[in-house]
Each structure stands twice: as C-alpha cells, then as structure tokens.
Write the structure tokens for this entry.
Amino acid sequence: MSRFPVMLSAAALALLLAQGPAMAQSRAVPDDGSAPLEARLRALDADPERGNLAAYERLRARQALEALAAAKGSQAKADARQVAEWRVDIAESAAATGLARREIERLDRERSELLVEASRQDAARARAEAERLRIQARIQAEEAERLRLEAEVEAGARERAEGVLDDVARSQAERLRAAREREAELKRQEAELLKSLGEDPR
C-alpha cells in the first residue's frame, strides 16, 4: 500500500476539519439580509420613548422577518427581504409619528393649561378692576353727598342771613317812616301854634 494516498487522505481530512466550523457558521447564520433589520427592530423595541408605540406595525415587521427566515430559494428570500424591510420602515415611521403625536398632544395640553391660567389671571384682573371702580364710585358718591349737604347748609345760612337783613331793612324803614311822620307832625303843630299866635308860618 502506497503512503501517498494515505497522506492525501490525511490532508483532505485536515482541510475538512478546518473548514467545518466556518461552513457550520455559514449554515447557522444565513446571509439573507435579516440581521440589520432585526437589529433595527430590536433598537425600536428597546427605545424607552418609542418602545410602547406602533405595536401593530412592529408585530407585522416581526412576522415579515419570520417569513424571511422561512423563505426558500433566492427569489423568495429577496421578495421576503423587501417586504421585511418595508415593514421595519413602516414600524419606525409609525413609532416616530406616534412620538410626534404624543409631543403635539403634550404641547396642546400645555397650551390649554396656559390659556386656562391666562383666563384665570384675566378674570382676577377684571375682578380687581371692578372692585377698584366700585370703591371709586362709592367715594365719588360720598363726596357728592357731602357737597350737597354743605350746599344745603350754606343755602340755609344764606336764607337766614337774608331774612335777618330783610328784618333789619324793614325795621329801619319803619323807623324812618315813623321819624318822618313825627317830623311832619311836629311841623304841623308848629304851624298851628304860630298861626294861633298870629305869626306868619313862613
């Protein structure tokens, strides 16, 4: 028996043993393009902000990846990979849309709260202004009443003063008339006396 075939068999066996792990790894992880898609989907699931969004779309993406893993034949795998990529894109877009919608809702709530607070502040300012105007109107009414009372008092005092002046004027007029009447009476008596004495009254 020749030693050459034995050596050839040993070399072939060593080569097969060396390639075995690589071939086994190649069979274990098929190059069907699913790894990046699975990584994107895992990243989406692990995201604390997006992980609870787009649950239906993420489920469809997972199902598409499972269909890709089960596909047989190059064309079937290519079609399944395209569908899986679309589904992952849709899941990411839906999660981003949900996140944006959540932010819009938060901003809307903040806006509503700010509007309510502004309305409360406006109402408080309006109440304060109404109270200020009420106090001002009361002060003006009190001032008007005080001025009216003063005017009444002044009018009464003026009326009494005028009455006193009228009384004084009447009294003086009566005295003047009495004095003139007395003077006229004295002149008449004087004329009569002179006449009785035979003298000219002139």
